[in-house]
Amino acid sequence: MVLLESEQFLTELTRLFQKCRSSGSVYITLKKYDGRTKPTPRKSSVESVEPAENKCLLRATDGKRKISTVVSWRLCLFCFVFF
User: Which Pfam families match (predicted)?
Assistant: First the structure.
């Protein structure tokens, strides 16, 4: 999976939509993202620290190519309200 900046993600997402326009599907998923890349141990004495700003992980795939980006939750909310 390729982690892209927001503008690059939108460009690649447009390309995925154009490629799958005649036949095929594009799947988009949204997930809360706290910045961790590794799972935390179950019996951890370390307190979980909340990030300063909540973020969302956006993923898109056409079944062959996967792209993703991390954006603030406000941008996600903005996108869902207007689209």
Answer: SRP14
Amino acid code (one letter) for 26: V
- Where in the chain are the domains? 2-36+53-82
**Per-residue pLDDT for the chain (83 aa), expressed as one digit of tens each?**
788 998 999 899 999 999 999 889 999 998 888 877 777 777 755 555 555 678 999 999 999 999 999 988 888 777 666 65
Catalogue the E-assigned strands of the chain. Answer: 2-3, 27-33, 55-61, 66-72
| Residue 35 backbone class (left: φ over 0; alpha: ψ -120 to 50; beta: rest) | left
Classify residue 26 by its DSSP letter: -
- Kindly report the number of other CB atoms within 10 A of residue 33's CB atom: 16
**What is the pairing mode between strands 66-72 and 2-3?**
parallel
